[in-house]
Amino acid sequence: MSTGSTSDTWISCTRPNPAARLRLFCLPYAGGGSTAFSSWQRQLPAQVELCALKLPGREARMREPPFDRLTPLVQAVATGIAPWLTKPFVLYGHSLGALVGFEVTRELRRRRAPLPLHLLVSGRRPPHMQPGPEPLHGASDQALVAWLRRVGGTPDEVLREPDLLAMILPVLRADIGVNEAEPFVEEDPLECPISVFGGLADERASRAELEAWRRHTRGPFGVEMFPGGHFFLQSAREPFLRSLSAHLEDVLRDLPA
Asked: CA 97 to CA 78: how far, in whole Å?
């Protein structure tokens, strides 16, 4: 069983908190990694332990081939986090991470494993809809770089450096396969609440599209919008993290003493 060590294959827990009453598992966007969440812990409630997912193909797992299909990735993540499900927990994912978090929740339900008390998703249309205004699967390198520039989130100096792009683009292509290649399979709605966050200028997920997540839960549901585009969680970081923390505080208040 995991003890909160940062050496875990699947989990990066930069500030282990044995006294935490709640764990927050964070799933990255396409091409992203666990370091996207490494500075969040300081702004979360003290009783929350942040556990960022380390996916194959990036960071400490760079030598491993990335998954390029949703189902095997979801199954691997559900197995990877199983030793960490010893405390109440919440799942959060941005963009691709929103899809993976949703599907991991359904996979945990199929396994009769512990389930999240709340599913938090951002920056992605719901799974039953097309993931964006245009498919990216099969796009040229030039088109992918142009798309990265348009949505933001990747420093310009990275996009101008061929050696860095040569490392990033294969992982991004694999993640696009995860995001786009498999058709959605209908199942019963989840019982846990779903809260959705979006950017007011995000071309990949309008408020009306984010509202369509409602069909996937029988529990409470809400949408909150922030200034910015697809990566509003960077450009509107402070208000977003305040809202995220408020949701976690609500979960904490409902836990047994």
From this structure: 13
* Residue the block writes with tokens 């945990």: 108
Cα 29 from chain centroid? 6
| 215: Cα within 13 Å, side-chain hemisphere | 11
Phi, psi of 151 (to 5 degrees): -85, -20
* 58: nearest Cα among 140, 176, 169: 169
Task: Write out the two tokens for 153.
Answer: 């989130």
Active site residue 95: yes
pLDDT digits (tens, 9 = 90+) for 148-172: 888 887 888 888 888 888 888 999 9
> pTM for this one?
0.93
Catalytic pick from 95, 140, 206, 243? 95
d(CA 169, CA 164): 9
Q: In this structure, how many other beta carbons lie within 10 angstroms of the beta carbon of residue 216?
A: 21
Check residue 199 and give its pLDDT: 97
At residue 5, the pLDDT reads: 40
Q: Among all chains, which residue has been given the structure tokens 């585009």?
A: 229
Q: What is the 3-state secondary structure (H, E, C) of the chain?
A: CCCCCCCCCCEECCCCCCCCCEEEEEECCCCCCHHHHCCCHHHCCCCEEEEEECCCCCHHHCCCCCCCCHHHHHHHHHHHHHHHCCCCEEEEEECHHHHHHHHHHHHHHHCCCCCCCCEEEECCCCCCCCCCCCCCCCCCHHHHHHHHHHHCCCCHHHHCCHHHHHHHHHHHHHHHHHHHCCCCCCCCCECCCEEEEEECCCCCCCHHHHHHHHHHECCCEEEEEECCCCCHHHHCHHHHHHHHHHHHHHHHHHCCC
Q: Which residue has the tokens 């294959």?
A: 9
